[in-house]
Amino acid sequence: MPTIDLTGKAAVVTGSGRGLGLAYAHALAAHGASVVVNDVDEAVAEAAVKSITEAGGKAVAEVVPVGTAEAADRLVARAVEEFGRLDVLVTNAGILRDKVLWKMTDEDFDAVITTHLKGTFTCARAAAVRMREQGEGGSLILVGSPAGQRGNFGQTNYAAAKAGIAAMARTWSMELGRANITVNAIVPVAATAMTETIPAFAPYIEAMRSGEPLPDFLRKGEGFGTPEDCAALVPFLASEAARGVTGQCIGIGGDKVALWSHPQEIRAAYADGGWTPGALADAWPTSVGAEPQSVGIPAPKFPEA
């Protein structure tokens, strides 16, 4: 089994004061990387740094809300000032403002897009500039979501941002390939503050926090586990072992890891001279429209009582 050694590398993990982001920061530090922890709450960020250093890792905090170019520059500069370089960026920071389309305000939409999508863009841009200057490659690890792959009821803003993040990963993998900078999107599924609000999951998460293991139908069947279950993917993608992995959307959760497909044409039909609306109506049911694609995140398959 290859040894994942990130000694000498420096990483920035946005939104890493708690939850998945904290698990990513711990995993990077445990494999030797020095980490800039980021959160909007100073006390939370400092507690995260303390937990990493007490475990034998190296970390500092930078308290700033991501979204602006100034915030991104601060995060990159902190890594360079403290550790002399930047090798890994994990764009985990995010917020939720869930509402159905007709109730979602401009403020709801803009806040989520700013943090998730623009925050990913500005941080990745600043990191790419630094990594290209260093000339030694690097890793951009963008955090996506099943909602960005399939859509999700009540999450116009979040799903749009996460879909955009997947598209940026593919685009940047091409643009940064010559600089030996890999770019991938990860699609984690874990017991977090968001998923514990789903009634079907709540009793299992409560039992887990009481010391009971999650059942196999969740860990394997649904790929659902703890934030720590998702964390292994990050040091792997940051390592030399994954130097040939780029432009991918990779799901992880529980005992499961999976590669998401990229959108592609699945059926086609042709009409000499082009299509008319009537010809489309006639051909649709038996040609390209014969097997319409599903939408939304599939409901968990819980065992029958």
UniProtKB/TrEMBL annotation:
Keyword tags: Oxidoreductase
UniProt keyword annotation of Repeat present: no
SMART domains according to UniProt: PKS_KR
Single annotated GO MF: oxidoreductase activity
Residue intervals of the Ketoreductase domain: 9-192
Lineage top rank: taxon: Bacteria
InterPro entries named among the record's database cross-references: KR_dom, NAD(P)-bd_dom_sf, Peroxisomal_Beta-Oxidation, Sc_DH/Rdtase_CS, SDR_fam
Keyword Iron-sulfur: no
Pfam families in the record: adh_short_C2
Family note: Belongs to the short-chain dehydrogenases/reductases (SDR) family.
Name used for this protein in its record: SDR family oxidoreductase
